[in-house]
């Protein structure tokens, strides 16, 4: 590392791709940019580290998401660093992209109250004017989510605290864009030991459906094989 | 993103954990630090982006490794971003850690000529004074390498261009710290379609061993199941 040289520092930002599933549609949280660059275009929620507030980049991501949604996401992980001289007109820039999941219900009312934040169906993104390389970052995240959904039960983080197997199945099917066998999902749910059976049932399609919830100490189990679809 | 505010920027560095296997030992490239902070301690090869030279962080990592080894690594991937107010005495710092592999033979002569760079057996790291949180970053990388070795043939990047199955097996066994069945490795080699049989053989333990090499257009295949060991 250079000791006493003067270093031209790149811009460093943290941006989050927050997904949810709502009405059988995969949606991503986008923010209409109030300032330059890309004023008026839709971008990912994110920004600069506040070195007085944040202990690390995870906290930057959570803080910026809480600003827009009133909520920190149920799941958050680093996706990738993207960098280059041309992605930001202000100069060489580096962004750490996070990928995150939340239940639509948890944040719906807050988002409705923030004029500049909106859930956009991923399939409609190409119709919007988007900022920076955020559309490519969303596509990378979508691929990661799809891939992880084949070998884990990650989509549970798009559901409310109590959910039915039918709801979990529907969310997974929306993400992988393929139908699923209920039997093979049930086997995974049991093998994962991630869930507990609630003492409540809800009415679903004329019968009572069991409600499940994530155990407090649940680890996200990665299966050795992808889901057979 | 803040538009016209004055932002206190964190330090941003790129550091690489370059592994090789030599004499049945997993080794990591360390550099004795010539300057403060941590002058005289051993650290990872890395440093600041040069925004006039580098097109992105991958190029920063490759350039810094080439400085120390005379070579760019056979394999390089992003590991993780680590950040915080206390990891660097100069202030809040963010580092993007890469994890990389190289054949010992490719870089041995150059490294011998650079006084400040040295291959250190990973098992001996605790005996050294190390800089920053670099020891933890190396441990994270070692776990990633071990995990990936269970479902891919990544350790081939620690071998010279032409190698025997025995050499590949030895490198894998060093990384996973367990013996391997030759048969199951052979099945993976065939299934991967990553290699071609060279028209050369070398003498190995009293018989002739076939030499293999990586195909030019080889993709790194991830197997659905971990190696059975």
Q: Superfamily at the CATH H level of the largest domain in chain A?
A: Nucleoside Triphosphate Pyrophosphohydrolase
**And the CATH topology of the largest domain in chain A?**
Nucleoside Triphosphate Pyrophosphohydrolase
Shape descriptor of chain A reads elongated
Q: What is the count of DSSP helices of chain A, taking H or I runs of 4+ residues?
A: 5
Strands of chain A, count: 10
Distance linking N and C termini of chain A: 50 Å
**Average pLDDT metric of chain A:** 92
CATH class of the largest domain in chain A: Alpha Beta
The domain tally of chain A reads 2
CATH architecture of the largest domain in chain A: Alpha-Beta Complex
Largest sheet of chain A: 7 strands, mixed
InterPro entries (chains A, B): NUDIX_hydrolase-like_dom_sf, NUDIX_hydrolase_dom, WH-like_DNA-bd_sf, WH_DNA-bd_sf, WHD_NrtR
Protein name (chains A, B): NUDIX domain-containing protein
Domain Nudix hydrolase (chains A, B): 10-142
Could you please describe the fold and organization of this structure?
The structure is a homodimer of 229-residue chains. The first copy, chain A, has 229 residues and is α+β, with helices and mostly antiparallel strands. Chain A has two domains: 140 residues, Nucleoside Triphosphate Pyrophosphohydrolase (Alpha-Beta Complex), CATH 3.90.79.10; 63 residues, Arc Repressor Mutant, subunit A (Orthogonal Bundle). Helices cover 28% and strands 30% of the residues of chain A. Chain A contains five helices and ten strands. In chain A, strands 1, 2, 3, 4, 5, 6 and 7 form a seven-stranded mixed sheet that branches. In chain A, strands 8-10-9 form a three-stranded antiparallel sheet. In chain A, a hairpin with an 8-residue loop joins strand 5 and strand 6. Chain A starts with 10 loop residues before the first strand and ends in a 15-residue tail after the last strand. The mean pLDDT of chain A is 92. At the A-B interface, strand 1, strand 4 and strand 5 of A face strand 1, strand 4 and strand 5 of B.
